[in-house]
Amino acid sequence: MSWLLEGATTRDELLGMHAGLAAGHQQILDTLWDSSVDARILELCRLRAATLLGNTHAWDEPRSAAALAAGLDEDVVQALAQWPTDDRFDAMTRTCLALTEQYLIDVHGITDEQVGEVAAAIGSDGVITLTTALATWEISHRFDNALLSDTTSGTTAAQTTGAP
Amino acid sequence: MSTSPRLASAVDGKSANIRTVMRHSPKVREAFDAMYATLWSGGEAPVDVKELMRLRNARVTDCGL
Q1: Closest partner residue to A18 among B21, B31, B42, by Cβ?
Q2: In the predicted structure, residue A164 carries a pLDDT above the cut 80
Q3: pLDDT in tens, A46-80
Q4: A131: closest CA among A99, A108, A109, A95?
Q5: Which residue has the higher pLDDT, B47 or B18?
Q6: C-alpha to C-alpha distance for B57 and B49, rounded to whole angstroms
Q7: How far apart, in Å, do the first and last CA atoms of chain A sit?
Q8: Is pLDDT larger for residue A34 or for residue A21?
Q9: Strand partners, A149
Q10: How far apart are CA A127 and CA A40, in angstroms?
Q11: What residue spans of A34-72 are helical by DSSP H?
Q12: A149-155 long-range contacts, Cβ below 8 Å, gap at least 24?
């Protein structure tokens, strides 16, 4: 539920209160999912960001259609917290997840070397896509935390955790 | 804090800055710019309030740009 719109339970319903913004938000999402970066990696980074920001709504909503079409494995999704050691996460995915965590935990701790590793893995265009995606998802996750509350307990998303 | 681009310019003859670096992924840049423009042009909040929010956000996140 939400404080803003009675009966609203999703981000899209709230964004629908501002049609122009909703359209712009959808356009950037469509562009990101249609980019050169593997959609499975983008979805894993989106969900990892959700966990770090305490947004359970992102885990409850359907997985990215683009990522599913690319072969996203739900068992791998459920193992996301173990990405540094689980061998189902390849080097490229780990490089992107490492940047995701650094971006969210201490963005000023990102180094030239780390960006260089990501660029070597997914290209300069991939770096722009991934960092723009992280910025977009950070907005989405914080939006959810601020404006959507848990439907069962009435607590905000930020007060609930439990996602992998 | 880094205020120097970590990627080369994607525009021949232009130095690296936020605009020329983001041209590595022009479609993403265009979509981002479109949404950014909507944030500034639409809604109920006055532009001067939005600018104060932008600057406060920059201060909180220690954005040197």
Answers
A1: B42
A2: no
A3: 999 999 999 999 999 999 999 999 999 999 999 99
A4: A99
A5: B47
A6: 12
A7: 23
A8: A34
A9: A156
A10: 16
A11: 39-52, 57-60, 65-69
A12: A149/A1, A149/A2, A149/A3, A150/A56, A151/A1, A151/A9, A154/A1
Owner of token pair 């120097």:
B4
CB contact under 8 A, B35 and A119: no
Check pLDDT > 70 for residue A83.
Answer: yes
Which B-chain residues 8-37 have CB contacts (< 8 A) with chain A? Answer: 8, 10, 21-22, 24-25, 27-32, 34-35, 37
* Residue, of B36 and A153, whose pLDDT is higher: B36
User: Topology of domain A7-161, per CATH?
Assistant: AhpD-like (1.20.1290)
Using a 10 angstrom Cβ sphere, with 0-12 exposed, 13-18 middle and 19 or more buried, the burial of residue A23 is middle
Domain range summary for chain A, segments of one domain joined by + = 7-161
The CA distances from residue A84 to A100, A121, A134, in Å, are 13, 17, 19
Q: What is the ipTM of this complex?
A: 0.84
User: φ, ψ for residue A84 (rounded to 5)?
Assistant: -70, -25
Do A2 and A143 meet the contact criterion of CB atoms below 8 Å apart? Answer: no
Task: Assess whether pLDDT exceeds 70 at residue A5.
Answer: yes
